[in-house]
């Protein structure tokens, strides 16, 4: 753990591998998607051990973590997992997740070739 008594929210999220890049963490903070102890966090807001951080990245499920260790630089996965305590709600069962429709091949918008064939069958001219 770092010797510092506190760390910036954006750099901590990146350092403990909760966000892929530091700029992505900064963007999350600026967009208002990060809360520390229930309050909206700016990127430079400092964290202390015991703070609760809530965030949602790229449309994913909400994450709620409690800070257990402060790091200023990116650390390996085993150290990163020990730096926070995850209180995120469990994902919904597979049956309850939103169904993303999968379109069969050819069931979508007709291609240019298909439109020409349709026009030919309908007896329309291409003038």
Outline of this structure?
The chain has 127 residues and is an alpha+beta fold.
List the helices and strands and how they pair.
Elements lengths: L6 E2 H7 L6 H9 L3 E3 L2 E2 L5 E2 L4 E4 L7 E5 L9 H6 L1 E3 L25 H11 L5
Antiparallel strand pairs: 1-4, 2-3, 2-5, 5-6, 6-7
End-to-end separation: 73 Å
Shape: elongated
Give, in spatial order, the strands making up the sheet with the most strands. 3-2-5-6-7
Strand coverage percent? 15-25%
The pLDDT mean sits at: 85
Q: Return the string of H and E elements.
A: EHHEEEEEHEH
Task: Let me know the number of strands.
Answer: 7
Word description of this protein:
The chain is α+β, with helices and mostly antiparallel strands. The chain has a domain at 7-91: Structural Genomics Hypothetical 15.5 Kd Protein In mrcA-pckA Intergenic Region, Chain A, CATH 3.10.290.10. Helices cover 26% and strands 17% of the residues. The protein is built from 4 helices and 7 strands, in the order E-H-H-E-E-E-E-E-H-E-H. The protein has helices at residues 9-15, 22-30, 77-82, 112-122, and strands spanning 7-8, 34-36, 39-40, 46-47, 52-55, 63-67, 84-86. It has a 5-stranded antiparallel beta sheet. A two-stranded antiparallel ribbon has the order 1-4. Helix 1 crosses helix 2 (22-30). The longest helix is centred in the C-terminal third of the chain and has 11 residues, at 112-122. It is elongated. The model has no long low-confidence stretch (mean pLDDT 85).
């Amino acid at each position: 753990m770092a010797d510092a008594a506190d760390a910036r929210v954006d750099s901590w999220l990146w350092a403990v591998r909760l966000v892929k890049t530091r700029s992505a963490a900064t963007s999350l903070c600026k967009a208002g998607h990060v809360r520390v102890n229930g309050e909206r966090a700016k990127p430079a807001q400092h964290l202390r051990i015991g703070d609760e951080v809530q965030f949602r990245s790229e449309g994913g499920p909400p994450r709620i973590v409690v800070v257990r260790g402060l790091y200023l630089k990116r650390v390996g996965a085993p150290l990163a997992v020990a730096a926070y305590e995850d209180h995120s709600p469990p994902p919904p069962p597979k049956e309850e997740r939103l169904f993303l429709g999968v379109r069969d091949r050819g069931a979508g918008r007709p291609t240019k070739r298909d439109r020409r064939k349709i026009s030919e069958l309908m007896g329309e001219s291409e003038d």
